[in-house]
Amino acid sequence: VLAEEVAVRDVVSAGLRSLLALHGYRSVETPVLERADLYLRKSGGEMAARLLAMSDPGGERVSPRPEFTASVIRAYVEREAELPLPVRWQYAGPVFRAYPAEGSPVTQFTQIGAEMIGSASPRADAEVVGIACRGLADAGLREYRLVVGHVGVLSGILEAMGLSDRAAMFLLGSTGRLREGDAGVSAVKERAMELGLLGHRPGENKLADLAKDLSDDELRALLQSMVQGTRTEALGSRTPDEIVSRFLAKLRRADDPRRVEQAIDLLAHLCRIQGEAEPAFREAARHIQSRGLDPAPVARFQALMDFMKTTDVPARGTTVDFGLARGIAYYTGLVFEMQHDSQAGVVRLGGGGRYDGLIRALGGRGDVPALGFAYSMERVVEALRAEGRAAPHGGAGAERVLVVPEADAYPQAQAHAGELRRRGVVAEMEVSGRTPEEALAYARGADLTAVVVVDARGHVRETRLKEGSRAAPRSA
């Protein structure tokens, strides 16, 4: 990333970080390299596939961070007893992911983001989404749109259907496939069959078939007869009775395949609902009620969207997407993305959501609610350029001059350059022995605004190359 784009990115980044600071988000830093299991515990399969895990010299599995949230939450967990809630933190820095399917083994990009820890209120959700939108608007972006989903709606429906945590996690992680129509639904059902969530093919598991027709006492007697006489070392540390009890519980705990199939079909409809809020909410409630379920999760989502209208969330360009999952498994509630259209398709500028279970999963002492978001800075700058709104070098009209000493005038030129810098002017010293004419040609090629020649008496001659305020008085 070369100087001009870095200059644009620095200006945009400074504005975004200043906005977060004005809302009370204090800066923190976390290591680039973390233990790999930090990201594997709750991030889900998609993020795990993009992890650049490796072994350190001590043999421990480590990885450059693929995102900041897990690192920030780890830092919070280590200090949670000292911190009054809510905690508002912001961060910035590079993250690293692998995209082997797209032919790119490693991608590095820059994230700026924030986390709010300790509030479950809709006000917290509205604040975070509002700041994320305000930052793009303040940067000058006009044609982005906000897409909002809610993982809690889908998980609430699955809970009401009586599915196990295992089945619910599988289905929530399959929302991307379920959006693909009949082919995606068939693929999810096939995978559910492989996992035993939709039962098994006839003859594949004769014991499970037999268990349906036996009482618990009859099944226990059958299992005990199977392990009777087995050598102790083959059973490990558990007794035969413990093994029988665990296996019996597993057989009886299995999800009803008909219910799993009904859940897949319902989620397939819900995941494809997207568009303007009011019709989307009506359609979702209709599908849920048609299955005899309570649409209360949809009503709570709708109430949150209504509340967000009081913040900086744009009145236009905001849509609802019930299938938005963002590819990270730790989300539990609101999820959102800021998107921008480009010639190559939809560009995701950033996003985030609520992850109320992550703190406990990473060793915290309780169910502390939390949420956050992050921008992808390269994509934000790309979108600004597409709209013609990216200003290089800190903005139009910034003064950048070349200070050229005549013979024996280097001390005087240095003093004058120092005075310019104290006034906020970017002053480059000519150090290559160029003549004034050669210095002028260099300055034009380097996109400078003026050339200032200083003689041994401290007198200054200035040649303007661009319109703007004068860089210097006539004498130093």
Topology:
Layout: H1 3-22, E1 26-27, E2 33-35, H2 37-40, H3 45-49, E3 54-55, E4 61-64, H4 69-79, E5 87-99, E6 104-117, H5 122-139, E7 145-150, H6 151-160, H7 165-172, H8 175-178, H9 182-194, H10 206-211, H11 216-227, H12 232-235, H13 240-253, H14 257-271, E8 274-275, H15 277-290, H16 296-308, E9 318-321, E10 334-342, E11 345-354, H17 358-361, E12 370-376, H18 377-386, E13 400-405, H19 410-422, E14 426-429, H20 436-445, E15 450-454, E16 460-464
Parallel strand pairs: 1-5, 7-9, 13-14, 13-15
Antiparallel strand pairs: 2-4, 3-4, 5-6, 6-12, 7-10, 8-9, 10-11, 11-12, 15-16
Helix pairs in contact: 1-5, 5-16, 6-16, 11-13, 15-16
Helix content, binned percent: 40-55%
Tell the overall outline.
Answer: elongated
Record field, number of beta strands: 16
Give the strand content.
15-25%
Question: Structural class of the helices, strands and pairings?
Answer: alpha+beta
Largest sheet: 9 strands, mixed
Mean pLDDT across the residues is 86
Low-pLDDT sequence parts: none
Strand order of the largest sheet: 1-5-6-12-11-10-7-9-8
Q: Determine Rg (CA atoms, Å).
A: 30 Å
Q: Count the DSSP helices.
A: 20
In whole angstroms, the N-to-C terminal distance is: 37 Å
